[in-house]
User: Fold this.
Amino acid sequence: MEQIDRPPKRNEGESTDDFLKRIEDYFDRFYSAAFKGGPAHSRNVKTGTYTGDGTIGQSITGIGFEPKYVRIWNHPAAEANMEIHEKLDQTWGDYAGMHRSWDGNTQHYFNDSRINSLDSDGFTVDDDGADAHPNKDGQAYDYLAIG
Assistant:
């Protein structure tokens, strides 16, 4: 099996579009090596960006397929906290995994009311009724969806 490096990190000053393209290329190589198929694009991989609206049910649509896995991360200010939320279609029920990193510390949780559902053309996020990630009002987020 082909050796695949760790996922890329965002470079200082790198545009969101360039970073998302590098993430998409990484998962192209990962998916092809892991599943011995064609490029990941033929297997439904989509990256994108959305802005939180602070509600308990914002639908992110237009990805073109029903995802089996979604990973979301916020755009932190320099030296700020970062949260990553992820959900699989077959496990965790109403819960989504959350990974939080700040000042060199890391925490991992399973929370409900964060990624509500994986839908036929996208996914639905929630602010947990407290204007929180991954749907904090005005906050920019990147996502990776694999179907």
About this structure: The longest helix spans residues 16-35. The first strand starts at residue 45 and ends at 51. The two ends are 22 Å apart (CA to CA). The chain has one domain: 16-146.
